[in-house]
Amino acid sequence: MDSAYNGEYKALLNELIQGMECAKQLRVHLNSAASSETQYFFLQRILSSYEKALLILKWRLVGQSHPVAPPLPGAPEPSISLDRSLDINNNGFKEQQDYNVSKKRKAMPTWTEQVRVGAENGLEGPTEDGYSWRKYGQKDILGAKYPRSYYRCTFRLMHNCWATKQVQRSDDDPTVFDITYKGAHTCTLAPTTSVPPLRSPEKQELKQIHHQNENFQAMQSNQMLMNLRASLRVNTDGLDTKETAFPFSFPPTFSGLTDENQHFQSSQVDDNAVALGTYSPSFVSPTTPESNYFSASQQHTNAFKGVHISSANTSSTNSPIVGLDLDYSLHPATLDPNFPFDTLEFLT
DNA sequence: TAAATTTGACCTGC
DNA sequence: GCAGGTCAAATTTA
């Protein structure tokens, strides 16, 4: 197995894991009567993971490295388009005869993503995809309410990177951006963090929308924290057996609500729960308050488990039922299944 | 002052 | 000929 194949395999595995994780989240949100926007967000993430996984498989099947790791810097790309609505047949793959190598601009590999500007991704959506872009044009598109912006890789000259992307705001939903990527990046040594932030109109609009959402989310989070604090029950069935070998992964950290002073007592825990000590909520997701994240630690083994606690307000009782899912363990080899966890706390 | 964005002109493909 | 895509000079920003 060569290194390129290793990289593709890992990327594929990563996409599938992400898709599975999002499906789990969606299931939780469906059961907890979360907002349709939250459910839509996870649905989009699942679809995106499937598309990227298919993209990787597709390139492997035609004997090419996928666009994340192109075969040769600056080389013309094979004629492959992944526009979901046009080019993928019933099997999800295009006919082999269409893979003609062409030097035409339109022949570059193309794929499209739809990104909703919302609480979950905020500014990390359309403009923060891990690469550095420079705007080189903007055009009014016939029949479209909003102009289309054209970006190319900042390192086109430095690293001969010919990746471009087009960003267009949806007519129907101004919070949705259609992003079309063309060409592969060959500038993996040039992370976004080394480049000053973009000053595009999209960025400014995104900031405004994000700011408007923040106040509402903080209010939601406070209410959720109070509800959870008032009636927390933890069901730890199967806590020590549901481990996986996948890397530990939590949602991005938000700089929003933090409350270090609130503690839940272990007396609030079900009889079948392991001794968890005190709960120290220091973080509640402001974006998905129905779902809050904890970590449970075993200090004697220096290991901890990722624990996903969700609350579902039931109509028959005033107490929200809190279910506990063990998602991933960071160091499964070092976990002692017979030893209780020392703490259960919100992630920060 | 360097780097990024804007915008009108030009190019390309259908 | 038209619409979309790109170029490059002018302008703006940090």
TrEMBL record:
Keyword DNA-binding among record annotations: yes
Gene3D superfamilies per UniProt: WRKY domain
Lineage: Eukaryota, Viridiplantae, Streptophyta, Embryophyta, Tracheophyta
Biological source species: Ipomoea batatas
InterPro entries: WRKY_dom (IPR003657), WRKY_dom_sf (IPR036576), WRKY_plant (IPR044810)
Keyword flag Endoplasmic reticulum: no
GO annotation, biological process: leaf senescence; response to hydrogen peroxide; response to ozone; response to salicylic acid
Similarity comment text for this entry: Belongs to the WRKY group III family.
MF annotations from Gene Ontology: DNA-binding transcription factor activity; transcription cis-regulatory region binding
A GO cellular-component term linked to this record: nucleus
Positions of the WRKY domain: 122-190
Protein name: SPWR1
Keywords annotated in UniProt: DNA-binding, Nucleus, Transcription, Transcription regulation
Top-rank lineage group of the source organism: Eukaryota
Subcellular location: Nucleus
